[in-house]
Amino acid sequence: MAEWLYEAGIGERRAVLIDDDRIIAARIETDEDGLPPDSLVEARLGPQVVPKRTALATLENGQAVMLNKLPKGVAEGGRFLLRVTRVPIPEPGNPKLAQAFPAPDESPIAGPDLLARIEATGSPVRHCLPHEPDWFEQAGWGECLDEAETGLIPFPGGLLRMSLTPAMTIFDVDGSLAPGALARAAAQAVGEAIMRHDLAGSIGVDFPSMEGKAERLAVAEILDAALEGPFERTGINGFGFLQIVRPRRFISLPERVKGDAAGHRARRLLRQIAREVPPVAVDRPVDRSVLRWLEQRPQYLEQLRRATGAAIVFRLRDVSEAAS
């Protein structure tokens, strides 16, 4: 039976769904994600972006959101209630605002956090603690993060190359099998990768070119079986390309890793140190971007001190240390 593993770490919460000793879903929630979807909160209406269609709004905590429908009878600067439908997406060079709709007949309420969402799936949840064995790593947590960082996902007979673009997430299929066999194996791997990394929005898959409609239909059916709804897709065209669209509400693992690379590396390091067996080394050389990120969040250093009993000192790694 599938089981969720859950960790409440420094700066982030982590969850993985394990089935047959492998990760089939991996999720991260950080302190900086903003309000989760289905949060109902008061906001102040800002200027219209598309006249009579969309506008900016500002929450009480100062967070800006994109309003995809204008509230009736509310002038710019007026207060109203909205429902968050998507968290902000940290796209490099072009971060995307959270999205929301007016909710005039509702009452303020906090949306479900990561723990509440995984509990709602009905699968059992095991809370993992730093002094216990690293159940996450035993299930393949490090390999899953490596997939998100590098975009390289091996499967029997081939390799997926996962790339984030402003328009969509692209999977390129590579391998030594015959085109039909490679496409069938890749379809299973793509479906599993989409679910594991929580990919959403527009997703493209570049399969090898296949002869005949029947073969393309068989590959598409394998992909359908590996995906959970809701989703829509095209058929596989004569050049081997297929497009999938899934509702986008959260940050996918690759978006999180690439959109906030310094934060991801820093939080991964904090997890590693928090799990070390005492005595913990206090001198920690790090890259400049990670050091800057940590210096801006002293509360995490205090949490780490309480977790380890040591006053960890992060400093800039010098050239000789980087070379080694």
Task: From the structure above, extract its key features.
single chain; 324 residues; alpha+beta; Nucleotidyltransferase, domain 5; OB fold (Dihydrolipoamide Acetyltransferase, E2P); six-stranded mixed sheet; five-stranded mixed beta barrel; 10 helices; 17 strands; 31% helix; 31% strand
Question: What features would you describe in this structure?
Answer:
Helices cover 31% and strands 31% of the residues. It is an alpha+beta fold. It folds into four domains: 55 residues, 2-keto-3-deoxy-galactonokinase, substrate binding domain (Nucleotidyltransferase, domain 5); 63 residues, Beta Barrel (OB fold (Dihydrolipoamide Acetyltransferase, E2P)), CATH 2.40.50; 96 residues; 63 residues, no CATH class. The strands form four sheets. Strands 10-11-12-13-15-14 form a six-stranded mixed beta sheet. It has a five-stranded mixed barrel with strand order 4-5-6-8-7. Helix 3 crosses helix 6, helix 4 packs parallel to helix 5 and helix 6 crosses helix 7. The longest helix has 19 residues. The mean pLDDT is 95.
